[in-house]
Structure formats: structure tokens, C-alpha cells
Amino acid sequence: MAKAICKVLGVVFLIVGLLGFISPNLLGMHLSGIHNIIHLISAALALYFGFAASPSAARAFSLIFGAIYLLLGAMGFINPGPVIALLQARHAPGGLRSLAADNIVHLLLGAIFIIAGLARASHVAPITIHRRTTGGTTARG
Fold first, then answer.
1. pLDDT digits (tens, 9 = 90+) for 87-126
2. 3-class secondary-structure state, position 139
3. CA distances from 82 to 14, 64, 106 (A)
4. 133: left (phi > 0), else alpha (psi -120 to 50), else beta?
5. Which of 58, 63, 121, 129 is the most exposed place for a label (fewest CB within 10 A)?
């Protein structure tokens, strides 16, 4: 599951990172230049772990990345100053409350990544049929 989530959210990060340069207030977010670059770096990392890394590495990445995004979202509500500085959103219209949408998205992303990191893929052993010919009979084992 972690690899699939990394692939899907990697594409989402890529799209949002690119569109943020064209429309900085996309969906009510505050997408500054640095915020878009962070999204593009996040996209590259998530896509790498989604496509090239092992499932266990994708799970570890999802847990770490999820924790970072949860922390970012929580900090945006508890102590918005550092988040505003990081995202360069000092001049965001609407003041501190206007970052609520950004914080909620960061919390959701964090939760999705954490869930993906904790989920284990169900391993179903493939059914194999061994045929042994002993006196004209076939046995399955």
C-alpha cells in the first residue's frame, strides 16, 4: 500500500507544485515559490519510493514523511509563525487564519502517509501444482 500511496501522492505533489507557479492561490492555498519547490521535492521523493524503492523502504519513507507533514499541520495551528516563515506566507491575504486550509491539507497528507506506512500488504502465496507421475496418477502437493 505504501508504494501505491507514494505513486499517487507523488503525482499530486508534482501537479500542485507546477500549478502553484501559475496559480499561487490554487484551491485557497498559499503556494509561494518555496512552497512549490517543497512540493516538487516531495514529488520526487514520493515518486522514487513509489516506483524504485523496496516496499519496506516505501513504508519507512511514508512513516517519516507522514510524521513531518502531521507536525507541519499541527504547528500551523499551534504556532503558525515558523510555518509562515517556512512557506513564505507572511503576506497571505486573510492573515494567520487564512492558512487553515494549508494546515488541514498537511494534516490529511500526514495521516494518509502514516496509514500507508503502517499498513502491510497482504501476501497471498501463489498456488502451485506439482505433478508427479507415479503409476499413471497425478498427485497435488
1. 776 665 555 556 888 899 999 999 999 999 999 766 545 5
2. strand
3. 24, 20, 15
4. beta
5. 129
